[in-house]
Write the structure tokens for this entry.
Amino acid sequence: MVTLGDSVSYDADPGIRAALEAITTGVGSGVEVETRSFGGIGLLRPGFDDYLAEILDTQPDVVTLMLGGWDSDKAMADPESYRARVDEVTRRIIDTGTFLVWLGLPPTPPEEDAREHLILVNDVISSVAGRHRNVAYIDGSLLGDARGEFTRTNVAVDGTVQQVRKVRNGEDDGHLCPAGAALLGEAVAEVLLMRGVVGVEVGDPEAGHPQGEWWTGEWTLDPRYDDPPGACSG
């Protein structure tokens, strides 16, 4: 499995990897995750096609994509062209036999004034995803409050309320803390298991959902969660 996306996805990557690699398949192997997200990437950004080709050359079984923030202005200006681009990239991935998981953009702080952009991009991606059999869409509002709006804290994987989004210079920031990354990791694991993409040995009681308290692993100490310092210390 390969994860790909922008800086929000970069923060999500360790949580996704932890959740997926905690799945016991019951056949002596599990899930191997390569994280490839980085800041500033988008479907309309220079170099994306070459980068995607590099990833697909490794013949991954699964690819996750969280993109759109860097595309939003052009998407708003020409939604149908953006829809065609999303469909083109989707087909390019699944035509190789790879299962694609589109991660919807999570709600942004109100101060960013990006709600209309986010709704448009997510609507385009979810509608394209719904037309293809080997594609799943995960709604980014799982990181939001009961109304799907931005929230700094949320109910974490373990049932406690934790900080899921960063704070930068005293203001809410859209990037993720470990608890937010774990929520996305759990969602990806559930989708892949439900769709039968991750196979488990029938009759093995240990096979299936992620095992152990994977959400408390050393990955939560990654320096990205302290950028800027104290961003996730609330």
